[in-house]
Amino acid sequence: MIVGTQAVGRAREIVLGVSIGAVIGLVTALIAGGFVRGVGWIARLSDASLTLGGTIGGHFVSARFGVTLLVAALLLLVVRRVFGIARWNGPADSIYAAHRADNELDLRAGFGSTLAAFISASGGASVGQYGPLVHFGATMGAAIQRWTGARISADVFIGCGVSAAISAGFDAPLAGIIFAHEAVLRHFSLRALAPISISAILAAAAMKYLFPSVHLLTLSEAAPPLHGLIVPLVLAGVLFGMMAIGFMTLLRASARFNQTLGLRPWQSLMVATVLAGMIGAVFPDAMGLGTQVVAQIFQGSWAAEGLFVLVLAKLLVTALCLGFGFFGGVFSPALLIGAASGAILGQAMVALGVTVPGPAMALAGMAAVAAAVVGAPLATVVIVLELTASYEFALLALVAVVVSMVVSSLFFGQSYFDRQLLDRKIDVSRGRGHLRMMQEPVTDHAHDGYLTLRMGDSVTGALAEMRRAHVTEAYCTDADGRLRGKVALLALLAQSGDGLLDHVIEIAPLQIKSDASLLQAIEQASGFVGESIPVVDTETGRLVGIVTEADLFSAYLALETRIRDLEKL
Q1: Which of 25, 101, 148, 321 is deepest in the core (most CB within 10 A)?
Q2: Strands 452-454 and 473-477
Q3: Backbone angles phi, psi at 318, to 5 degrees
């Protein structure tokens, strides 16, 4: 009977999860489609209506981006004030939320950041669209879980939103499913598979119905044999990994430089507007999402010299935009930088007598750079597979992706988002257990099962008190409850005759501050020998409780059991 009841409850949970996953997929697809189409419509409108500029050296220099970026900057200041956002939220926050015990996401900041990304991209800033959409999907998932009060863990719905965003953005439902598990959840979960899959599938179906469009990639050539390109792809993968490292390092350096300047948000945006506007006037192809430029690269419309300038301009303007106040993703710029770098390398190989089909190296570069930046090698390869409908091209991309990921992980880290979290003292690479032990306060496991004595008490009186309490240790406090020391039974018994505790007290015993985490407490207690460890208030020094080694071990084992059960299901 119990088994039957559990089965019914499990079935209800699955139905509820799938239903909510479907809602998340449809809503995310609607927003993603509106985001992409809206950005494109505004870009076409501004391109047609803004003809400001002049001729310099026989070339027309447009002031379009200076105007559109200024408008976008002013709107971003309004969004920041209306939503009360101090820091834009992105995929790094989604990853962190999926690993936290409370799975909490700031809904106001999440929706406001998505609007900020739309404004930035519409204004022509060199930013990506997929990162903000991923975070919107995650925010939507967390919001629906909160509004429905579903007992299902919020990380499942965060995964639903993430998979729907990738599925809708690339028309790649399989990649969306894998990306949610690989880059965000960081584990495979049967309980999450059904909702995440439904969310991705419905998002792709809704996008095709509501916003029919052509694929990002249209390849007319067949993929070359893999065996003839393994060595070139391995060598190219090293270069792509270095390119990804350079891109991420430049982004971080730009943000740090902005912080060192101490500028106000409006001042940073003005700097970005002026400098990015100047770059856009000379290299307009480096601005915006770059979707059309990527398509042109695969069509072979660019020479190596132009591609080289394009890569430099894209690196610089993206770092300026993201480092100085505009907001958006890094995936789209990484796709362009990777495709252009691969096309340059392909043309160089042809010049050296190595036969490389045009799209092959560009595709490998696009996948390899993007995978290293976002930390999702499998999902990126599956995106290639679903975009090209070519198993052979996916294998070519896989070789370069693997090498690029190895290089990037050795010299930079797992991903750009992981480094963003590390800058905030958050390390998700060590797993949920480690992160949650860092978040769980030791005071949750402290208790008052201890004996307190006063300075000036007699040894005889202390012995009597400890016998009555059946303890081998006691703590001395002053009149205000501040910890003054620790008294051990053996030390009292070693005293000849009566005397004061002042002569046998341990003045500086091992103690744990009240603001310490469970992990910090375990690390402090690793070499401890004794009955208990005092927990004292960080500011006042008052004794607030004690923990024993058994308390810490029990807390650790209970936490590990919860994590294991979560990931097993």
Answers
A1: 25
A2: parallel
A3: -65, -45
Instruction: Quote the pLDDT of residue 314.
Output: 96
Rounded Cα distance, 544 and 295, in Å:
64
Per-residue pLDDT, 59: 59
Q: Are residues 277 and 205 in the same domain?
A: no
**Number of CB atoms found within 10 A of residue 227's CB:** 7
For residue 335, what pLDDT is reported? 93
pLDDT tier for residue 37 given thresholds of 50, 70 and 90:
confident
Comparing 501 with 279, the larger pLDDT belongs to: 279
The percent of residues above 90 in pLDDT, for the chain, comes to: 32
* CA–CA dist 514, 386 (Å, integer): 52
Rg (CA), the chain: 29
Token output for 528: 């401890």
Average pLDDT, the chain: 85
Given 429, 447, 478, the domain boundary residue is: 429
Q: What is the pLDDT of residues 454-468, one digit of tens each?
A: 877 888 888 888 888
Q: In the predicted model, what is the mean pLDDT of residues 529-534?
A: 84
Distance CA 341, CA 347 (A): 10
Q: Structure tokens of 86?
A: 């101090």
For residue 4, what pLDDT band results from cuts at 50, 70 and 90?
A: low
Cα 556 to Cα 534: distance, rounded to the nearest angstrom: 19
* Same-domain check for residues 222 and 155: no
Longest dimension (CA), the chain: 104
**E strand residue ranges, 166-221:** none
Instruction: Out of 378, 402, 429, pick the residue that ends a domain.
Output: 429
Residues 353 and 289 in one domain: yes
At 41, list the tokens.
């419509």
The confidence score (pLDDT) of residue 5 equals: 64
Which of 46-50, 75-79, 321-325, 557-561 is the least confident region?
A: 46-50
Q: Which amino acid belongs to residue 299?
A: Q
Q: Which helix (H) or strand (E) holds 60?
A: strand 59-62
User: Which stretches within 324-390 are classed as H helix?
Assistant: 331-351, 358-374, 377-388
Residue 192 tokens, joined: 């999450």
CATH classification at residue 107: 1.10.3080.10
Closest CA to 75 of 120, 114, 107, 42: 120
Contacts of residue 8, defined as CB under 8 A and 6 or more positions apart, other chains included, come to none
The answer to whether 428 touches 375, Cβ cutoff 8 Å, is no
Question: Could you tell me if 289 and 146 lie in one domain?
Answer: no
Number of domains in the chain: 3
What are the residues facing 517 on neighbouring strands?
441
